Amino acid sequence: MHTETTTADRLALGILDAARAAGVGRSTIYENINSGALKARKAGRRTLILREDLKAWLDSFPPLRSAA
Residue 44 belongs to what domain range? Predict the structure, then answer.
């Protein structure tokens, strides 16, 4: 029995999938990898981002403060 792995089931995401999951562009992902703000790994020619690293990067952003 073969089941297809959906993006939600993957442990690691490629650049495009990570950008889509985070709601940012690919260039933002690359810039943050290059600056060291976002951890990435190489598997051959592929650049992969672990889900927990993507979440940690998003969690590092300050919360939006409402103008109350």
Answer: 10-59
Res 38 pLDDT > 60: yes
> Is pLDDT of 2 > 60?
no
Single out the residue of 7, 25, 1, 2 nearest to residue 15, CA to CA.
25
Q: What's the CATH number where 15 sits?
A: 1.10.10
Q: How far apart are CA 44 and CA 30, in angstroms?
A: 17
Q: Total structural domains in the chain?
A: 1
Instruction: Look up tokens 């927990």; give the residue.
Output: 52
Residues 6+ apart with CB under 8 A from 62: none
